[in-house]
Write a structure and sequence with these properties.
- With 269 residues, the chain is of the alpha+beta class.
- It has ten helices and nine strands.
- It has helices at 9-27, 48-51, 83-88, 120-132, 146-151, 162-168, 172-177, 193-203, 223-245, 255-264; strands at 37-41, 60-61, 73-77, 94-99, 105-110, 139-143, 182-185, 208-211, 215-220.
- Helix 8 links the parallel strand 7 (182-185) and strand 8 (208-211).
- The longest helix is centred in the last third of the chain and has 23 residues, at 223-245.
- The chain starts with 8 loop residues before the first helix and ends in a 5-residue tail after the last helix.
Length: 269
């Protein structure tokens, strides 16, 4: 069967990077069963032949109007599809969708009529926001890091920037490689428009957003960058929790050293 990826090296590269990250998520235990979602904006890789491809699904309502997405194309992990399977066969466990001219619906065009992730309204809302503010970010990742989710079960950590400064203080790389920190969203129904809108609000200040008792959402230039930020935050969470399991409260990097790091790396906040 012919694939949309055939003879399109740049598009193939992006999709197979998604497959690579999907494998990492499964190996880390962050993607139980069908948990987690990935979407990437592939519009820049779309040629005239793809634009003429007929739909292989019915028109599907998104649930809200997203004016910046008119004519955009996305690769999306499929709903009820496992990351471990996507890692092996990305086009059997995901699909390419086209946003229609009404900006509130989509259709699947390749390779199989695999319905996209149930979190699609949240993901597309993020992409709509990113395009609207002129961002070059193309990737959105949602996953379930065990350590970070565990920390959201403590109400103390849900205050604004409480986790940001704690995780930054565990290892200098976190401050350097996740410079905007971690936004927090109180628990909302997964897949809901409320969750999508709350996520957009947090993305005004953060590249990584924590959904209380649920998981993390990250956006970046590409899927590897989005993954790396979550991976770095998770390492800090592991350091904190390991110290606590040893029976002491970790000291953390001092404010003075954190400020020096900010200046050395020209970091925000």
């Amino acid at each position: 069967m012919k694939s949309i990826l055939d003879n399109r090296p740049q598009l193939s590269k992006q999709v197979y990077e998604v497959a690579e990250v999907a494998g990492y998520l499964w190996q880390k235990g962050w993607a139980e069963r069908n948990g987690g979602n990935i979407t990437i904006n592939i519009t820049d890789e779309i040629d005239d032949e793809i634009r003429k491809m007929p739909a292989i699904s019915d028109r599907v309502e998104i649930g809200k109007k997203l004016p910046n997405l008119k004519g955009c194309y996305f690769y999306c992990k499929g709903t009820n599809k496992r990351m471990r399977d996507l890692a092996r066969n990305p086009m059997d466990n995901g699909s390419v969708i086209r946003i229609l001219d009404d900006c509130s619906s989509y259709e699947i065009i390749a390779d199989n009529p695999v319905k996209p992730t149930s979190e699609l309204p949240s993901h597309l809302s993020m992409h709509n926001f990113l395009i609207g503010k002129g961002s070059t970010y193309k990737a959105a990742l949602h996953t379930h890091p065990i350590d970070l989710i565990a920390m959201t079960h403590n109400p103390e950590f849900l205050a604004k920037d409480k986790l940001t400064y704690l995780l930054w203080s565990m290892i200098p790389e976190t401050r350097a490689f996740c410079p905007k920190g971690l936004g927090i969203i109180p628990y909302k129904m997964p897949g809901s428009i409320d969750l999508a809108e709350a996520t957009i609000k947090e993305l005004e200040d953060y590249d990584v957003v924590m959904w209380e008792k649920h998981g993390v959402c990250s956006v970046g230039e590409n899927i590897m960058e989005a993954f790396d930020m979550v991976d770095t935050l998770s390492k800090s969470a592991q350091i904190y929790l390991t110290a606590k399991s040893m029976g002491f409260e970790p000291e953390g990097t001092s404010k003075e050293d954190m400020d020096a790091l900010k200046i050395a790396f020209n970091l925000p906040k």
